[in-house]
Write a structure and sequence with these properties.
single chain; about 200 residues; 2 domains; three-stranded antiparallel beta sheet; DUF6540
Length: about 200
């Protein structure tokens, strides 16, 4: 059985951002191109699934880390012989499973710490994708621990939790601006009788 090494590719532009997660499946075991499987978007707008075909990690501009995860049966991969392109149509079993994992929607509160239910981003989606690959027997459970160790803490890269939003750029509730509370590291607003904390 021919196999390919599946990789976790991580990158971030600046240290205070959350790390972006993507899965890369090379077309050949020692080949330089493959398909990058990821969700892209923003917590305030939602995310979309993307298959980046003929993607070459070596040719990409962003600084990245490639972490080998496991060998996977090459027959599970969608092979692409065309030029580099991007789409959302799955090819092969691996991509079909990725398409079954709903991309993160609009966050209920994108200023809150990230979690696995209401405030999901690319790291959470990637974990769900890998858990499904483990569940169907394509990967060993040890992959989950490997990728979990790469995740950011829930409040890393959340601008408001780092005091990153200035007063003029704060969100508002019914026209009342939120006020950043340094001691509690949360936003709040005065409703006329009490402080209401952002949930």
């Amino acid at each position: 059985m021919a196999t390919r090494t599946l990789y976790l590719i991580t990158y971030r532009r600046v240290l205070r951002e959350r790390t972006h997660f993507a899965i890369w499946a090379p077309y050949k075991e020692e080949g330089g191109t493959g398909t990058l499987i990821q969700v892209l978007g923003a917590p305030m707008a939602g995310y979309g699934l993307e298959f980046k075909r003929a993607y070459s990690p070596a040719a990409a501009d962003e600084p990245k880390e490639m972490i080998p995860l496991a060998k996977i049966d090459a027959q599970l991969l969608g092979h692409w012989t065309g030029t580099p392109s991007t789409d959302s149509t799955p090819r092969g079993n691996l991509e079909s499973i990725a398409a079954q994992i709903p991309p993160p929607g609009i966050s209920r509160n994108f200023l809150a710490p990230v979690n696995d239910t209401t405030n999901r981003r690319c790291q959470e989606w990637t974990m769900d994708f890998l858990r499904r690959l483990v569940a169907v027997g394509y990967l060993d459970n040890s992959v989950i621990d490997t990728v979990q160790a790469q995740r950011d803490p829930p409040d890393h890269g959340i601008f408001s939790l780092q005091g990153g939003l200035k007063k003029a750029a704060q969100p508002a509730h019914d026209g009342i601006p939120w006020v950043w509370d340094d001691e509690h590291r949360r936003y709040r607003y005065w409703n006329g009788s009490e402080w209401v904390w952002i949930s």
